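The protein record quoted for completeness.
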Amino acid sequence: MKQKVLQTLKNNQLLLLLMLNMIISILIAVGATIWIINQNVSSSFISKYAQSNQIILDSTKNTFYRLGNDVKKIADYMNIPEVETFLKHSTSDTVTELNATMEVSKVIDRFKQEPNYSILHLGIIGAKKAIQPNGEIIIESTDKLQSIIQKGKKSNAEHIYPFLSKHGFTKETYNQSGIYYIYPLRNQYFQTYGHLLIFITSNDLSKLFSTYFNKNVENVQLIDQKKEILASNHANEVGHSFTANHALGYTQQKVQLPVYAWELVSTINHYKLLGKFNILPGIFVVCGFVLIFVFIISYYLLRKLTKPIYRLIHKLTLVQKGQFDQKLEIEGSEEIKQLASVYNDMLDELQKYFDKIIEEEQAKRKYELQALHYQIQPHFIYNTLTAIKMLVYEGDNMKVIQAIESFIQLLRSTLSNTDKFHSVAEEEKILTHYIHILQLRFGTNIRTTIIVHPTLRQEMIPKMIIQPLIENAYSHAFSNQSTGNINVFIQPMNQKIQIEVLDNGQGFNPEKVPTPSKNLNYTKIGLKNIENKLKMLYGHDASLSIHSNLGIGTSILIQIPMKYSR
């Protein structure tokens, strides 16, 4: 299987190289396109996101503006006589405290419907006393609260001054960081009798803006004029100093808030943003379908283009095997048509050339066969005429007439008919006349029998290949004995015609059996002529062999293809 696949790949190298070159080119083009599209889309997306992000940042101004107004309103409304009376009394008076608390509750009721009220933790602080307006428990001592107020006064106590603290002053906010607003409470004589503490946790403060921003994509921080982080959508950054980030892959935007000189800064992480907006899978899917479509179309076109070339290669392989009729159809591109036309012209010229060679070779073989034939005939004619001459000397006219008749029949069949083949039946007749002439020379003590298989009588065999073998047996097999038998068998054997000339003569040593190729003079005319004749007619499909045993006899065996005999 592996060898078959490798052979297929080897046979289609041109197509594979063209396809590989096309695929690499397409991949490079697609890769460059994807990179350009990704860069442009990513850049555009980041720009649009930054623009929308800036709009959101600008909108948070109103949120913090409302927060500042709400804080200032509460502070203004808390500046009431009942609170002043309560805070100024050195001793605790239940009635005074109750009056102050009721008035403060009325103020609080005005602001309960405001969106920002829920995040405000209030406390009214005097020199020795404190009021908790919304019911929370103040766990800090008055002295501790006064120290917080003094921290706020380090700047400008005439205004609300927010600052960061690690914990609040109520039980609920004590473990949370946040910012304090310190607002002085003054009477009509501008005398300060207490302070309003407003605490907002950093977590609540961040909720004012963090819901508008994606925590996984950007970092949003609220910083004061000292660059200290007051709130962030990442709680662990609160209390740390702010550091600007202008590194590649980040976009930093900020907005100046309307009060307190605060800034809201947003740092967008491009990598995380693009991770949320990943267009590459979609691009790859689209490009994948396009690539497959282009591949199929390109394969079809390249296959159509290279098909005539592979057909030409196949035809050339057949031509190499001698099939010169393998012409190409004139089709394909103009270059392929021109190549096919030249190839067809070349085949025509080759066919003419080889036809001429074959014709010359056939004529040469014909002359060679005639030459071999004539090498046999003079020898036979000489011996026959010698025998007839002896009969004339003896005065046996009847035998002379019979001999001349047989001789005439032999000459008619060999000289008048120039065909290379004749039927087995005709060969049998000729052998009968031939044996009659040999008996004139050698006498009738040597008996010759011809046995032909009935199915072979119409099969065609070469002329003059059996007669020399019979004459050889007459001349050499019985040189030391006066009687003997020669049998000629013509029979089918394995789709071949087998001709055997068998004698019971003196034979010879098997180790010294002559081979026709050595051209030994086992016969006076030599077996070499017969072997050459068979090779010219049949090539390697015919054979001639000799088998002999000393004192037993000799067998000469010829096998020729039956398919060539018609």
About this structure: Residues 280-352 form one domain. Confidence is low (pLDDT under 50) at residues 517-524. The longest strand covers residues 192-201. The chain has three domains: 12-277, 280-352, 378-561.
